[in-house]
Amino acid sequence: MNEFVEAKVDFKWQEPKKTYDVIIIGGGGHGLAAAYFLATRHGITDVAVLERKYIGGGNSGRNTTVIRANYGIPESVRFYKRSVDLYFQLEEETDRWIMHKQKGLVWLAHSEAHVRQEKARAELNTALGAETSYVTPSEIKEICPQIDITGSGQWPVLGGSYHPAGSTARHDRVNWALAEGAMKRGAHIHQRTEVQDLIIENNQIKGVVTNHGKMYANKVLCAVGGHVTSIGDMAGLRLPIRTHPLQAYVTNHYAQSFGPIISSTSLYFYISQTARGEILLGAEIDKQPSYSYRSGYHFLQTCSFRAMTMFPFLRDLRINRQWGGVCDMSADYSPIMSKTEIDGFYITSGWGTWGFKAIPASGESMAALIATDETPDLIAPFSLDRFKRDRTMADRGSAGTH
Amino acid sequence: MRLIVDGRPIPFEPDDSLLVAMLRNGIHPTGGGCLGPDGDEPHCLTTVDGVSYIRASQIKARPGMIVTTNPIEGYPPLPEDDRQRGAKLVQHHHCDVLVIGQGESGQAEAAAARAADKTVITVDVQNGQEAIGIYPGILVVVRTDDAMLHIHPHEVVVATGAAEILPVCPGNELKGLYTGRMVAQLHGKGFDLGRIVHVGTAPDGVESTAAVGELLRFEPKGVSPVETQNLTSPRSEKTQNLASLPSKKTQNLASLQGDVGAVIMLENGVEVRHECDTVALGLGLIPRNRLYRMGRDWNVRVVGEAARKSDIPPCPKTGTLCPCSSVTVDDMQAVWDRGFHEMELVKRATLAGTGPCQGVACLPHIRAFLQDRGKKLQPPFTARPLARQQTIGEIAAGAYHFSTPRTALDAEHRQLGAQMERISGWWRPWNYGDVAAEYWAVREAVGIGDVSTLGKLIVTGADATEALERVYPTKVATLRPGRSRYVLMLNEAGYIMDDGLISCVSPTHYILSTSSSGVNGFERWLRDWFDTWQLDVRLMNITQTLGAISVSGPFATDLLARAGFEQPLRFMRHREGTVASVNCRVYRLSFTGEIGYELHHPADQSAHLWRELMLLGRDLGIKPFGIEAQSNLRLDKGHIIVGQDTDYDSTPRRVHHEWAVKLEKPYFLGQRAVKRTNKIPLDRQLIGLTMETDGDAPGEGAVILHGDDIAGYVTSTAYSRVLGKAVMLGWAKLVDGALPTDFTINGRPATRTDVPFYDKEGNRARA
Ligand SMILES: Cc1cc2nc3c(=O)[nH]c(=O)nc-3n(C[C@H](O)[C@H](O)[C@H](O)COP(=O)(O)OP(=O)(O)OC[C@H]3O[C@@H](n4cnc5c(N)ncnc54)[C@H](O)[C@@H]3O)c2cc1C
Fold it and tell me: Do the chains contact at A396 and B339, CB–CB below 8 Å?
């Protein structure tokens, strides 16, 4: 037995019912968290999560698990800080090992312009409560001895920003802890159940049509990650979302020795070592919108090359596996957690390339919204109608990053 | 011939694989476990010349090779050194048909394709060509010792054969367990394998004794039957026993070590013991079809053994099922009992199938396990690249850094002592050592700067005016030949993408300029729309063809006159002319706030023009100015830099640029959105701020407070030498529909100040 075999989580699957108080479409982290917080915070357990594949099979089981709070605008920092805090306590609350680990996160600057950008990041975030400091090349070398601070003589590091709260957790275990917690309290989760249409009468949601027939509920939450526009279509909602693929890959296992999470914005890659010893590498989204989960070679080749520029030791590591996910990118690079024009129909979306860290806070807030029909302050700025109201939330701290 | 294993020299024979060489010397790469000849199983993994996870059966033994066996517990260390190795080359090949695998069926496919007059490429690991993935394209990547082959075929035939199923039962990590094919190979090499017992299909051409019935376990040599029996009692009892067993080692039945001494079979309900030195396992075959499964949406076929149905072994009862991640059947059962029933969930909960063999060892057994528990036979795990692992260095072969171009004046800048920086995707002079002097030269005399990096596009054609009318929020039709105008570029949402200049040469010929970093995106955007509209218009990107020098300062006009450009040009006009004998298009404009010209000219003349200007301006006090000075100069004027001062959702009014948007026009991209949002009360705006300081300025990103509330943050900032205070641009929220005047930044008072900060009437630029 390896130490990572899941030893506690115990799922109690149920037969589907015809009617629920709440139906949640999508068994990713966000859907499961909403169910979990509905059950634990509001005692609402007549809930079904419908997942077309298996739980956590979407982006929530494919991401690179970076958790951080240093974003670019006050509303975002406040929200992500809440999520980071919830992550710190999630293990204790659920009594499940989610392998949460604080690692510290460094953004590298390779030019004068980026030095100013990282200084700005540090200044702004620290002021907003997400401690981030500017660090010199020699400090970076101390944080991460494996780095070639000269960038192979081509991309020297001139400085960077350091966010000590940067952490990771095991994605699957987060999803499962939340799923189990919801199920234990009576919520249903139905896998292999795909929502194919919505039932709407007089502008009020009434239920969903699935591959196993109709199910009814007066409240429905859409939490389907990169597929949100197709569900939006069913409701006649045009969403300010484009879906872009994002890829990542891991090497085989090596002894633990790479501590932090390091990102280079000039070279477009980031790197960390997983609890199992794999080196995990990721980069930016594919420019072309698409729903394809397919892996590309060009990404693997260029990301490897760029990462090696900063970390020459990577040269001899063997790549084990690559994969991709599809990201729901909103027009202002901020999430959408909101009621909609359809009564009883809610969405959590726009999670793009950065929504794993948001799972607990989004779940908590969406549960409160669904339970009370009052939008919690924390997410009020992230409503869907902000685009219509010209109250968009452009956030450079999130665009295109983990 | 010798190679070194764990510090010990060992002899080997020509044509030995590393695995065979190690086995000749009694060394098992991972200390135990069933071995095959094709590298399907993880037990052959070893570290060779510093590279871990090399399949010993897949490389030839070479003299002097340095091999280390992997640690039994834990993983190999991350390499510490960064020895440079020769980079691999990439070779591209095109063909009609690529056949992967040159067994019987692969050869037949290749022959048939050739007979049909098709160009054929064949690859096979036996010849050192390892196909590692099929990608969209179709692109098939093949690793060889010399190069990475990128093969672009019309059709792929996967003929990679089948792998032998590995045993799952107690004792399956002993030494002396081989697949049937491995036994045949070792026999062929003259190995003395002692007494061979086979389970399932007998090995080809090797004498062996059959052990029939159900495979229960393997027992090591020298351990009494009683001892092992204890360890292999049925599950329920064992779970109890385990509670009292202290070490993880003993819990793991599979970690029995040593040489196999016996196979225990269940024959007609009776345990039968077969003493042996070697076990040959013929447990069935699973197709090696991962490459096919990666590419089956395209023109990819699978043939021969690779196309066979997978044999499904009997449901495993106990023992290690996934050797890569040390997952036992009990682990599987434990997660199954707690509701992990989906194949993917079982895999993720145990990590079975996620190790270096990518599930070859465990997959058939997991399928059997799930089928036995009432699930219908599950499809294999999703096939993801890489089919066989490669080093990051090999994968990186052929990649290069996106180039950071240099302008034609690069050598001039360096000669003048410039600090060169990567800025907006180009190497540009940040400063020439004395920013203050550069700044004052422009304010009081004349300076020249390299602006060759500005995007330059030519739009021509009968519909040029109409096309640009639809693109820009300015009235293009009213722009007369010889005139230029500042323009914003908006996307459909009415958000600012870039800014620049439009210059009319004639109604069928325009020159557009963009920011340095914005040109490629803007060009793509224009092409998209021109194509959509089907207008008679052509677009050419001449950014790299033309150099551009900015001449700026009170003496700028004099300097141009000295250089032979005599007829004065009025503000926001342009025309062709000769400057220092170079044919230029000269634009009169201003970014710095002083009289300014841009000289666009063939890039091969840049150095000449630059030197002449420097020479002619010497007694005027001319200096070259870098980006740092330019940025300070423009900030005095409050000019925005798109990207730095704007955000993804900046509308014209948010940055006080309503004047650049003519809403009454019939149509332009983003017009509908701007009209709609304009009706909504504003929430925040980019504002000018000034602060009394002693020569310093708050940093970029500094938080702007109004009272105790966060109003926004600073986007551009500098100490203005000419004004003697800090000047800034930054975002501020409106309070009760109005912009406050007084703010605090870093504990110091700052005042909202209308831009331009300097020379509000703009007289200097127009002089
Ligand atoms: C490679 C990669 C790396 C990433 N790295 C990070 C990172 O480091 N840090 C970070 O914070 N974020 C990261 N992200 C982003 C993060 O993974 C996502 O934002 C987050 O997981 C979104 O969760 P979700 O629950 O909204 O969507 P998902 O997890 O995708 O869940 C949506 C679910 O809905 C299901 N579904 C879809 N349509 C239907 C339907 N019609 N009926 C029923 N079910 C349906 C899907 O099967 C899926 O399971 C990364 C993403 C990727 C792809």
Answer: no
CATH number for the domain harbouring residue B554 = 3.30.1360.120
Q: Which residue has the higher pLDDT, A69 or B82?
A: A69
For B376-407, the DSSP string reads PPPPPPP--S-SS-EEHHHHTTT--PPP--B-
Q: State how far the Cα of A59 lies from the Cα of A80, in Å rounded to an integer.
A: 18
CATH class of A102-165+242-330: alpha beta
**CB contact at 8 A, A275 and A99:** yes
B710 touches chain A (CB under 8 A): yes
DSSP secondary structure of A352-378: TTT-STTHHHHHHHHHHHHHHSS--GG
Dist. CA A355–CA B335, nearest whole Å: 28
CA–CA distance, A142 with A158 (Å, rounded to integer): 15
CATH of the domain at B50: 3.10.20.440
> In the structure encoding, which two tokens stand for residue B259, read together?
């040489």
Coil vs helix vs strand at B292 = helix
- Do B582 and B731 have their domain in common? no
- Look at residues B485, B364, B437, B421 and name the one whose alpha carbon lies nearest to residue B623: B437
Q: Which has the closest alpha carbon to A351: A223, A177, A263?
A: A223
Among B157, B189, B151, smallest CA distance to B57 is for B189
Q: Which residue type, as a one-letter code, is found at position B522?
A: F
| Contact between chains at B78 and A255 (C-beta distance less than 8 A) | yes
Residue B333, pLDDT above cutoff 60? yes
The CB of A48 under 6 Å from ligand 1? The reply is no
**Residue B710 CB partners (closer than 8 Å, separation 6+):** A74, A127, A128, B703, B704
Per-residue model confidence as pLDDT tens digits over B338-376: 999 999 999 999 999 999 998 999 999 999 999 999 989
Residue A327 Cβ contacting ligand 1 at under 6 Å: yes
* CA B74 distance to own-chain centroid: 29
Q: What percent of chain A has pLDDT over 70?
A: 99
Last residue of a domain, one of B612, B645, B668: B668
CB distance A267 to ligand 1 below 6 Å: no
Give B483's DSSP letter. Answer: B
Specify the pLDDT at position B767.
87
Same domain, B491 and B622: no
